[in-house]
Amino acid sequence: MVPLLSEMIWMFFCRFCPKCFVRNCLRILEERNFWRPGVGKTTVIREIARVLADELRKRVVIVDTSNEIGGDGDVPHPAIGGARRMQVPDPSMQHKVMVEAVENHMPEVVIVDEIGTEAEAHACRTIAERGVMLVGTAHGQMLENIIKNPTLCDLVGGIQTVTLGDDEARARGTKKSVLERKAPPTFPLLIEIRERRCWIAHQVHQL
C-alpha cells in the first residue's frame, strides 16, 4: 500500500449510488474549478450535498455534528443548497441522530461527516439496509487502516480469520488460516482522496 501524501485521507462512501452518478459528480466539481488552494474535505461534502439536492432533486439530510458543513447559525450555509441539516447536540449522539434522520424525515440521501465510532458504523449499516443512499467520511493514513480498524472495518465488510480444510487449502494454494470478508460491505463504493486532484475510486467488493 502506497503511503498517502497528506497526514490523513478522507474517504467518501456511497450506498446505492451508481458509478455514473459518481462520475458526474466528479466531473461537475472539476468543471467548476472546484480545486482551488485551501479547499478541503468540508467544501467537497457541501458541494456533493448541493448537487444531490439542487441538480439531482434528491431529498438530502445532512447530519452535521460539528456544524462544519451547514454552519452553526439558525440559517444553514447557502453552499449546501436545498439540503436539510440536522444539528447534533452532542458528538456522542451522532449515531442516534443518523437513525432518527431516516425514521422521521424520509430522506433519499443521508450525508454524515466523520464516521468514527462502532455505533456510527452500525448506524450506517442500518441506514443502508433501509435502502437510503448514504454518503459519509472516515479517515486514516492509508486505505489499509480502514480495513484493519476494528471500529470502522464494518464499513467495508470487516475481516475474519477462517480455517480451511486440507483439500480447500491445497486447491487455493494458501495456508489453512486465511483472512476473508466477514459480511457484505456497508458501502459498495469508496473514494480515496489522496490530494485535491487525486481521487481514487474503489469497488469495495474487490478489495
Describe the structure.
This protein is α/β, with parallel strands linked by helices and 207 residues long. 31% of the residues lie in helices and 24% in strands. The chain contains 6 helices and 9 strands. The strands form 2 sheets. It has a 7-stranded mixed β-sheet with strand order 3-2-4-5-1-8-9, with helices on both faces. Strands 6-7 form a two-stranded antiparallel ribbon. α3 runs parallel beside α4. The N terminus is likely disordered.
What is the radius of gyration computed over CA atoms, rounded to a whole number of angstroms? 18 Å
> How much helicity do the residues have?
25-40%
Let me know the average pLDDT. Answer: 78
Question: SSE order in H/E notation?
Answer: EHHEEHEHEHEHEEE
Based on helices, strands and strand pairing, what is the structural class?
A: alpha/beta
From the spread of the alpha carbons, the general shape counts as: elongated
Strand order of the largest sheet: 3-2-4-5-1-8-9
Largest sheet report: 7 strands, mixed
The number of distinct helices, counting runs of at least 4 residues, comes to 6
Low confidence ranges: 1-10, 32-39
Strand content: 15-25%
C-alpha termini separation: 12 Å
Query: How many individual β-strands?
Result: 9
